[in-house]
Amino acid sequence: MRDDADVRPWIYGGLGLAAAWCAPAPASVLPFVAQTLRIPLRIRNDSCVALTFDDGPHPQGTPAALELLAGAGAKATFFLVGEQVDRWPEVAAEIAAAGHEIALHGYRHRLMLRRTTAAVERDLDHAAEIIAATTGVAPRCYRPPYGVFSAGGLALTRRRGWAPMLWSRWGRDWEAQATPADIARRASADLRPGDVVLLHDADFYSSAGSWAKTAAALPSILDAARATGEPLVSASQST
Ligand SMILES: [Zn+2]
Which of 43, 79, 129, 155 could crosslink 105 through cysteines, CB 3.0-4.6 Å? Predict the structure, then answer.
């Protein structure tokens, strides 16, 4: 049986902010909230699986993921962090050159609920500009750090024409104690057409070296995705 309680952000709660401002925050906790706010957790056409990688580019983690994806002939979506694109522009360009989808994860990796809409706007516009200039691709999809939207941030995302995207399966690959087997099992268990799988190709905002465990888990996850019988597609194909 599918465990929807497993689909929750890893930092959420206890922020004490106004209820209206926080309303979109539990979208990745409660599928009905996501549905009401039209924030996709899954690919809408239910005839494909999307693998997504957050927090890069990373000088080791991204090439490791790219090599495994190329070996499997698979395409994925990379939600890039602007400050890391500034540090590793050639790695960001490599993702686009390999034909993967380039998506937006912000310039700084900060919780949206703790920022004003003006600050979020500056951050996202700056990130989109850096990413487009570096990769030659204007991002079409946006996922906030920790999967948490504020009301203002969600409205801004839509004004800019970026499709909001969360996830339906994850490997919890940021956890210090996670093994490659744990990551593969959590990301692949009950994987079905339409799922969006959250992984991380970087350890800038998670436990040190987590990218290596994600890379070790990736072959099993790719096998499980192929076993659904559906093609692997980019996240923007759900919109
Ligand atoms: Zn992130």
Answer: 79
Q: Is 3 a catalytic residue?
A: no
Residues 119-153 have pLDDT tens digits of: 999 999 999 999 999 999 999 999 999 888 888 99
Catalytic residue among 54, 123, 173, 203: 54
User: Cβ neighbours of residue 184 under 8 Å, at least 6 residues apart?
Assistant: 171, 217, 220, 221, 224
Beta-carbon neighbour count of residue 118 at 10 Å? Answer: 10
Reading the block at residue 107, the tokens are 């310039």
Using a 10 angstrom Cβ sphere, with 0-12 exposed, 13-18 middle and 19 or more buried, the burial of residue 65 is buried
Domain extents in the chain: 4-238
As assigned by CATH, the class of the 4-238 domain is: alpha beta
Q: How far is the CA of 189 from the centre of ligand 1 (A)?
A: 22
- pLDDT per position as a tens digit, 79-128: 999 999 999 999 999 999 999 999 999 999 999 888 999 999 999 999 99
